[in-house]
């Protein structure tokens, strides 16, 4: 499935906040922003949607277990353990687990504290 057949809702996904750091006291101009690390588990058949962007919310993802399919720009890319990808202002995607075991990723991003999507 490409972007035009994007998932409309999240299902079979659990997120766990591992840690967060208020960036205001750390970096001038970053008041109200937070560096966040989460563990995201997508069950078999699960979807992390809908189609979304990362404007104003850059991050990186690293896969610990399973395989995650990243649907981006009409291209479906499978990522397995030990692989990751960036999520920048040009990223517009959704994710799914087409495999038979839970897929687990570590997601690190910068978010606005008033809109932690």
TrEMBL record:
Residue ranges that the Swiss-Prot or TrEMBL entry lists as coiled coil: none
InterPro entries on file: Cupin_2, RmlC-like_jellyroll, RmlC_Cupin_sf
Positions of the Cupin type-2 domain: 39-107
Pfam families in UniProt: Cupin_2
Protein name listed in UniProt: Cupin type-2 domain-containing protein
Source taxonomy: Bacteria, Bacillati, Actinomycetota, Actinomycetes, Mycobacteriales
């Amino acid at each position: 499935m490409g972007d035009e057949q994007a998932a409309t809702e999240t299902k079979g996904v659990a997120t766990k906040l591992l840690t967060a750091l208020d960036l205001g006291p750390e970096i001038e101009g970053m008041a109200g922003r937070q560096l966040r690390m989460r563990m995201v588990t997508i069950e078999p058949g699960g979807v992390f949607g809908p189609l979304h962007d990362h404007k104003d919310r850059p991050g990186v993802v690293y896969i610990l277990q399973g395989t995650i399919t990243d649907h981006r720009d009409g291209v479906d890319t499978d990522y397995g353990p030990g692989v990751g990808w960036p999520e920048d202002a040009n990223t517009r995607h959704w994710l799914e687990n087409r495999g038979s075991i839970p897929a687990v990723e570590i997601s690190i991003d910068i978010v606005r504290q008033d809109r932690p999507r």
